[in-house]
Write a structure and sequence with these properties.
alpha+beta, Phosphoribosyl-aminoimidazole Synthetase, Chain A, domain 2, seven-stranded mixed sheet, 11 helices, 25% strand
């Protein structure tokens, strides 16, 4: 547990998976590496999907932006089911330095962003604790209830599926770094890039992707699985979906969407955009006969979509084609974003 970020697959399998409480038959999907939600059979044709994530409180970013991350990073996990979230439970262990006025503002934004996406806040716990100086102020659980046979998980990818990526790499990393260190980014990269990078922040929701896929799948199942891009970036998300489904993957590096803005910011902070936190992008596992229809439906909703690879048999492994060479797809246990953020902070970047 010495490294920052999520635990790796091996640690998960050794410590978490064998110790996951009483085994109940109605639990359809329990703890799984690379799976965004748990599923519980409600025994009436519906299932409950649940996800849990940290709640953000990042002083350098701002209270409004922190509240957005707290709500939408959980909502993005629920979106991988192809449904929107309905309920939210929160647990806040706040720093004692936060004032009543600051908490009131933060909580009003939590309420506002929840209302915007139709989420009821149904309970939780709120308090403060000495020594709490983290950018993580607690945790939350989002829940939705939907027809059982229509819910997607990242476990359901099928060999032969094409891997479609929406939007671009590293959206949330680029936006948060630009907002957290605005003077440095503006000075080094110019006003235009700094502004465009900051503007990415409120584009880091994937609920529109969920709605587009749900509508497509109501007519005919064309998307088998989805996984949102978080820690580990787009390539980490692809690898996690591979682990979850028990299949291999092949990714074409040159197909991965990159923009001048993200490349400039990532170069400044010495990041590879393919491997750092990329909330706002979704990975879809699409039946090959329906690639065009899926991409077109996403584009019509203002969501750029690109085929970046395919799902293959497990025997073919996990590979990436770079500069015409087939290589093993690496997985970094610690997202490089964290070192970049705290490195800039300790350098005194403003």
């Amino acid at each position: 547990m010495e490294n920052a970020g999520k635990i790796n697959e091996e640690y998960f399998k050794q410590v978490i998976l064998p110790n996951s409480g009483f085994r109940r038959k109605e639990v359809l999907v329990g703890p799984n590496f690379g799976v965004d939600v748990a599923l519980i059979d409600l025994l009436d044709g519906r299932a409950m999907a649940l996800t849990s994530d940290p709640l953000s409180l990042i002083p350098t970013l701002g209270l409004q932006e922190s509240a957005w991350l707290s709500v939408h990073l959980m909502a993005n996990d629920i979106a991988t089911t192809s449904f929107s979230p309905q309920y939210l439970q929160t647990v806040l262990n706040l720093p004692t330095s936060i004032t009543n006025a600051q908490f009131r503002e933060y909580w009003q934004y939590i309420d506002h962003f929840s209302q915007q996406i139709g989420v009821a806040i149904t309970g939780g716990h709120t308090g403060s604790i000495e020594g709490q100086n983290s950018t993580i102020a607690g945790g939350g659980t989002m829940i939705t209830i939907a027809p059982k046979d229509q819910i997607l998980t990242s476990k359901n990818a099928q060999a032969g599926d094409l891997i479609v990526m929406t939007k671009q790499c590293a959206m949330s990393s680029v936006a948060i770094l630009a907002l957290s260190f605005p003077e440095t980014v503006k000075q080094r990269l110019g006003t235009e890039i700094a502004q465009k990078a900051s503007d990415l922040f409120y584009q880091t929701s994937v609920l529109k992707e969920a709605e587009a896929v749900r509508q497509l799948n109501e007519k005919q199942r064309v998307v088998n699985a989805m996984h949102d891009v978080t820690e580990g970036g787009v390539l980490g998300a692809v690898l996690e979906m591979s682990v979850a489904s028990g299949l291999g993957v092949e990714v074409n590096d040159e197909k991965i969407p990159r923009t001048a803005v993200e490349m400039a910011v990532c170069e400044l902070f010495e990041l590879d955009p393919r491997y750092c936190i990329g909330a706002g992008s979704m990975i879809l596992s699409v039946k090959p006969a329906h690639e065009t229809a899926v991409v077109q439906a996403l584009v019509e909703q203002g969501l750029p979509a690109t085929v970046i690879g395919k799902v293959v048999a497990s025997s073919e492994g996990r590979t990436i084609i770079e500069d015409g060479q087939r290589k093993s797809l690496p997985y970094f246990e610690t997202d490089p974003y964290w070192a970049a953020f705290f490195g800039a902070y300790h350098k005194g970047w403003k």
